[in-house]
Amino acid sequence: MLTKRIIPCLDIRNKKVTKGVRFQGNIDVGDPVEMAAAYSEGGCDELVFYDITASAEGRPIDLSMVAEVARAVHIPFAVGGGISSVKDMERVLLAGAEKISVNSLAVKNPSIIKEGAKAFGSQCIVLGMDPVRVDGKGCKSGYEITVRGFREKTGLDALEWAKKAVDLGVGEIVVNSVDADGTLNGYELTLTKMIAMNVPVPVVASGGAGKPEHLVSVFTDGCADAAIIASIIHSGKYTIRQIKEVLAKANIPVRKKW
Amino acid sequence: MIAIIDYKAGNLTSVKLAFEYLGIEAKITNQPDEILAAKRVVFPGVGSAGAARRNIVAFHLENALKTVVGRGTPFLGICLGTQIIFDFSEEDGGTKGLSLLSGKVKRFAPFAPPNFMDKVPQIGWNAVSIQRKHPVLEGIEDKSEFYFVHSYYAVPTIKEEIIGETEYAGVKFAAIVGKNNLIATQFHPEKSGRIGLKLLENFSGWTP
Questions:
Q1: pLDDT at A23 exceeding the cut of 70
Q2: Where do the structural domains in chain A lie, given as residue ranges?
Q3: A5-249 has CATH 1.10.540.10 classification
Q4: Catalytic positions of B, please?
Q5: pLDDT tens string B74-106
Q6: For domain B2-205, is the CATH number 3.40.50.880?
Q7: CA torsion sign, B62 to A89 to B152 to B140?
Q8: A248 touches chain B (CB under 8 A)
Q9: Which residue in chain A has the smallest CA separation from B128?
Q10: Per-residue pLDDT of chain B (208 residues; tens, 9 = 90+)
Q11: What's the pTM value of the predicted model, to 2 decimals?
């Protein structure tokens, strides 16, 4: 049986892993390569890196970091932030990443998904989306896409955007709830389930994990195929093994040996 | 030296880095003479069967591939590289393979909402049930999990050539196939952590 993936997220700022609440009050928590190696040894199934200041600083993603991570870990990892063209995607993949995550760029220029999928295959192109709850305010699904680190609303309906992105060729969708992000109160289950049940590609839940039981909920009630975690392990409060033990007890298939 | 065949079917960096990590010399190449001169050959790939077929033709690789397999050089297929060694794939309106193994390649049944079934492609770690012993699997436990990314799977004609099986989307499919000096995996050993590295290490020491 296919196991549910646990994916630590490493937000990178000035070559350091950082963690904040809703993109504010960030604190450095460690070196990206060391943390990647430690999490891989600890049993994570995949990793994702976001160069969170690359776009704002108008510079390309830090390729030397991508290459170092690729040497240090032999599990898949995705990279996002500071990617503005198919050429950028190619550089990141050649440095050893498995997947590219596009978010704001895809909203601004949806054809980048199509071009990326055509050049490298759908399995390489991940759509990251940051929806916020907007009860009764125009978006039919009840969730609107934000960009630029939640700072800007787009008027795009989250579910429609997810479906459109699949048509354009994304192979996977990361649904990062603006409302749940950094709260440690659990994933946004309604949102995750709505996207997961309505697209044919895997959906990765993101935002809100504070204890292992939150992952149980997102894999059962939320219908997620994979889940991103950050503070829950960056803080040292739980290990990946502890999280997986809780999942296994709840009969959720997880990779137990690594 | 191990030749990692580059036929513009996806990113080969992680395959090369895995061998590098193991201290094994490997070179990415699309030159038939380099492939013929190699001690071992790795035939990886992600992407579509049609494009792979076109590139194999464009780079004049078919003869070199058939020659190394035919003369007994240890040969490892990975993912799309595994699918393309069969007779035929359903992908891209039907694609002719290299017929190094007998059988065809089929697509998983699509995910059809509102029924919550397995998504296609299969992306992630799944267990492999070992069907028969093989030197390349030495030290790897039965039902170990490996990393898969695929929408299609091989159906070998000869059941004895199935080395390992995996279950997804309601089918049991061949996750590892092998015949003589050829072994091929549907999963990515180069991205399957320590257990995947063990498989690659075994391959690099294998004398069929």
A1: no
A2: 5-249
A3: no
A4: 79, 188, 190
A5: 999 999 999 999 999 999 899 999 999 999 999
A6: yes
A7: positive
A8: no
A9: A1
A10: 999 999 876 778 999 999 999 999 999 999 999 999 999 999 998 778 888 899 999 999 999 999 999 999 999 999 999 999 999 999 989 999 999 999 999 999 887 755 556 888 899 999 999 999 999 999 999 999 999 999 999 999 999 999 999 999 989 999 999 999 999 999 999 999 999 999 999 999 999 9
A11: 0.95
Cα distances (Å, whole numbers) of residue B154 to A38, B144, B172 = 35, 20, 10
Whether A197 sits inside 8 A of B167 (CB atoms) is no
Residue A97, amino acid: A
Give the ipTM of the model, two decimals please: 0.94
Nearest CA in chain B to A37: B193
CB of B10 less than 8 A from some CB of A: yes
Is any Cβ of chain B less than 8 angstroms from the Cβ of A225?
Answer: yes
**Binning pLDDT at 50, 70 and 90, where does residue A213 land?**
very high
Domain boundaries, chain B: 2-205
d(CA A152, CA B21): 43
Long-range CB pairs of B104-112, under 8 A, 24+ apart, other chains included: B104/B154, B104/B155, B105/B49, B105/B152, B105/B153, B105/B154, B105/B155, B106/B152, B106/B153, B106/B155, B107/B151, B107/B152, B108/B151, B108/B152, B108/B153, B108/B168, B108/B169, B108/B171, B109/B169, B109/B170, B110/A200, B111/A200, B112/A200
CB contact under 8 A, B193 and A1: no
